[in-house]
Amino acid sequence: MRRAAYQGRSAGRIVDLRDPVGGWRSGPVLVAASFRDRRRGLAPAPDGVGLLVATRSVHSLTMRVALGIALIDTAGTVLHVMRLDPGRVLLTGSAGWILETIPGESLPVPGRRLLVVPMLAGCLES
Fold first, then answer.
1. pLDDT, tens only, 92-123
2. Contact present, 57 and 89 (Cβ < 8 Å)
3. Is pLDDT of 87 > 50?
4. Half-sphere exposure of 106 (CA within 13 A, CB side)
5. In Å, how far are 20, 49, 108, 121 from 116, measured between CA atoms?
6. Of 10, 91, 102, 116, which one's alpha carbon is 20 to 30 angstroms from that of 70?
7. What is the pTM of this model?
8. Residues with Cβ < 8 Å from 23, sequence gap 6 or more?
């Protein structure tokens, strides 16, 4: 059911973020293609799928669990990594992108520049 809801979203592309120096990889990440994708957030995504949003703010007002957050500038450099507890709002002036993950997913190391590698949509099916 969750996978079906996820596949019905607008045509955001799926990417893998990678740190070529440290070897970190994000796994599948949906790039939010619309306001609707951003508003729905991670809720309909299968476990292990992150959300990359071109924004300077994010909230967890309707979340029951914390979010893993990585603030990324427009050049792809990780500025800060943090946990956003439920019921919180995060505003930042320096980030161009925010990576949202579910609790327990690994996050990149601050200061590292990430590469964006396109993935096939079928990689989410099991």
1. 988 999 999 987 888 999 999 999 999 865 55
2. yes
3. yes
4. 11
5. 11, 15, 13, 15
6. 10
7. 0.81
8. none
